[in-house]
Design brief:
Elements lengths: L6 H50 L6 H16 L4 E7 L2 E5 L11 E7 L2 E9 L9 E7 L1 H36 L1 H12 L16 H50 L5 H32 L8 E4 H11 L1 H6 L3 E5 L3 E4 L1 H18 L5 E7 L3 E7 L33 H11 L3 E7 L2 E7 L3
Parallel strand pairs: 7-9
Antiparallel strand pairs: 1-2, 1-5, 3-4, 4-5, 6-8, 9-10, 10-12, 11-12
């Protein structure tokens, strides 16, 4: 199996490739510019030589006249050892300084290589614009130019290779240095366990590009730590709540079975055990309900509701309990929303039951409905300390410090269930307490 390249190696190779491409393009452009410059220099030199040759051969239009000027021409060519000349007219060669070499006949400047030697060939008439004028073919030896261009090409390739290698090494070092925060994040992630969720990445020395990632990573660790603490507390609370009823069931059953007893005693024991089992079954059902809420599985039905009608029905249900507790029930205002009637009644029922338990005799429980689907359940009595308000909706939490273990009446899940129902409807719930009143406020979408 082929091992995948690391990010640092990929960056180093990318830097090297980019440097090689840039160096190669620069070298090619410089090579083309140099070649064009040499061609321009050769053209200028050949133009100068052509002027001198035309001056030397001025008036020559026949082989006899050329023979008279040949010695002067050879003297002129001897002063230019890199220059060769061929003169032809009407298919005859008057002079050939490069015998056996096939030269292009088209007018203008050409490049030619023969026997390892490079030439620049220039064809032009002796007399410009005169038909039948002898044709001059100038051959300029440019081998030294070509050698320079070849050396420059070798230098370009060497530069490309060395620069790519140097960039790869420097890129690897820079990438490794730049990715050090990522390695630190990997080390922290590898060290995270159920016992080390408090570790955090230092954000002060992080690059700007990684600061947000470090912040998100720390936030994730915070959420995991909070979720783990809640899960640990939940497990402890479950054991705490179930320990007493299970112990009661076990002890009661063992006592009943120690000796034969009348049928009525067995019947009474079964009824007592049934109450405990019913409470445990309700606790399990409530936990399953909250688990569905945590996973977004609560899907409330949507129907238009006049909340005052549902509140009145619940108040009528709690009337007898309120009379026994000497508490008055009052409903004020109206409100409308769209939601699941059964789920919302369960939430309101939890709030009313909670309010009745903590309202002293002679007190009042008031349900206030306002426009915009805002509902509040208020009760008189001793207030709740501000420090405890954020925890009221935690599972198994009871603000009453005298809570009883394994109470078969109230397990501390009512407000958690209420909050889950409200959130499933897209609303929010919060608690206010002060000046002799405690108020639970629900805000639902209108």
């Amino acid at each position: 199996m082929i091992k995948r390249l690391s990010l640092a190696s990929r960056l180093a190779l990318l830097f090297a490739a980019c440097t090689a491409v840039v160096s190669l393009l620069a070298g090619v452009l410089f090579n083309h510019a140099s070649e064009a410059h040499f061609i321009e220099l050769d053209q200028q030199q050949l133009d100068g030589q052509l002027v001198a040759l035309r001056s030397t051969l001025q008036g020559v239009d026949s082989p006899q006249l050329f023979a008279q000027r040949e010695a002067q021409l050879r003297a002129e060519l001897n002063r230019q050892p890199e220059l060769a000349l061929r003169i032809s007219a009407n298919g005859q060669r008057w002079f050939d300084g490069a015998p056996g070499v096939s030269l292009p006949e088209a007018p203008g400047l050409h490049s030619l290589q023969n026997a390892g030697t490079d030439y620049r060939v220039y064809n032009a008439p002796l007399v410009e614009g005169q038909p039948g004028s002898p044709q001059l073919t100038l051959m300029l030896d440019i081998t030294h130019h070509q050698h320079f261009l070849q050396r420059m090409q070798h230098l370009i390739w060497l530069t490309v290779g060395l620069s790519a290698l140097a960039t790869a090494l420097l890129g690897a070092w820079a990438a490794r240095s730049g990715l050090r925060p990522l390695r630190r994040m990997g080390e922290v992630a590898a060290s995270v366990s159920a016992h080390s969720l408090t570790q955090r990445l230092p954000q002060q020395h992080m690059p700007v590009e990684l600061a947000e990632l470090a912040q998100a990573f720390n936030a994730m660790l915070g959420r995991l730590d909070d979720a783990f603490q809640r899960l640990s507390a939940f497990s402890a609370d479950i054991a705490h709540e179930l320990r007493t009823p299970l112990s009661n069931l076990l002890t009661h059953t063992q006592v009943i079975l120690t000796q034969p007893r009348p049928l009525e005693d067995y019947r009474e024991a079964l009824h007592s055990n049934l109450e405990e089992l019913q409470w445990m079954a309700q606790l399990v059902n409530d936990m399953l309900y909250l688990a569905k809420a945590d996973h977004g599985l609560l899907m409330p039905k949507r129907e238009a509701l006049a909340l005052e009608n549902d509140v009145d029905a619940l108040l009528e249900f709690f009337t007898l309990l309120a009379e026994d507790a000497q508490v008055s029930l009052v409903r004020e205002g109206t409100a409308h929303t769209s939601g699941d009637r059964g789920m919302l009644r369960r939430a309101l029922s939890n709030l009313l039951d909670n309010a009745l338990r903590f309202t002293p005799p002679g007190g009042e429980v008031r349900v206030r409905l306002e426009d915009g689907a805002k509902l509040s359940v208020e009760n008189t009595g001793e207030g709740i300390p501000a420090a405890l308000l954020p925890r009221l909706f935690d599972r198994f939490y009871r603000a009453d410090p005298a809570r009883r273990e394994g109470s078969s009446e109230h397990a501390g899940l009512g407000l958690a269930i209420t909050q889950s129902i409200v959130r499933a409807h897209g609303g929010r719930i919060y608690c206010e307490s002060g000046e002799g009143w405690t108020r639970f406020v629900i805000e639902l979408p209108a």
